[in-house]
Predict the structure.
Amino acid sequence: GLADPDLAYPALVGARLAEAGVPVEVVNAGISGETSAGGRGRIAWALKQNTPDVFVLALGANDGLRGTDPEATRANLSAILAAVREAAPDAQLVVAGMEALPNYGADYVERFRAVFPAVAEAHGAALIPFLLDGVAGEPRLNQSDGVHPTAEGQRVVAATVAETVVPLAERVAGA
């Protein structure tokens, strides 16, 4: 729903990395509406296009919206990180946590929330506890669907992601 992809958080994180003097190419391999299963199905193709030094896994929100079994989400995310580790053994991994809406009940919300730290721990990845921290539930920071961030919301998300990614990328680059 953004007029320009340069307004999305991956491009904004790339700009922050450039400002920090980190020589990077940021590749946004995300597809709107994608589930963890879709990402799992595409990861081999994505890794043929680019070998990452830092890999940010920000998938699962649509699983939560659809009520996907959290165990299936965990398995998909874990398989994605395993594929990245195989293709790029030295890559720094980052997992962006997601939250489920309460409409599936408290048990589902808790099981879904637990997926992301568990996957990060299992793969030695850094964890961003909640990708949409400060944005979710804030009408002025979300588009009319109430779910996808506006350009202003994307800036907040970029700041959240940059907190973790910029130091990792600086270490990788030796900056």
In short: The radius of gyration is 16 Å.
